[in-house]
Specification:
With 105 residues, the chain is α+β, with helices and mostly antiparallel strands. 17% of the residues lie in helices and 52% in strands.
Length: 105
């Protein structure tokens, strides 16, 4: 199993059901030294507002989210789900866990 840190859309039970065909169980955690930035993404019916993680100059900035245990197959589904505005990389969370996160490309 892999760890996936979600701070946005992937925390939605509706999105999880659509993407994974199941609801994920997660644990709250935080990412230090990063901040959220607004992002507009063109979708089928127009522009939509999202957020994306970017490094912060302030090491005390914090992003609250949830860590999910996911399979490699689940990660592949998320790779397809996220737009090319995001890229996946591993980060160390406040808990000490290493998890995948989707950040600004």
């Amino acid at each position: 199993m892999e760890k996936l840190f979600s701070y946005g859309t992937l925390r939605s039970k509706e999105v999880q059901m659509r993407l994974f065909k199941k609801v994920l169980t997660g644990t709250p955690d935080q990412l230090l030294g990063y901040k959220l930035k607004s992002l507009k993404i063109e979708e089928e019916f127009g522009m939509a507002d999202y957020v994306v993680v970017v490094p912060s100059e302030n090491s005390s900035d914090i992003i609250h989210g949830v860590v999910f245990n996911v399979s490699n197959a689940d990660l592949a589904k998320v790779d397809l789900f996220e737009s090319n505005a995001y890229r996946r990389l591993q980060v160390k969370l406040q808990s000490g866990e290493t998890a995948w996160i989707y950040m600004e490309s």
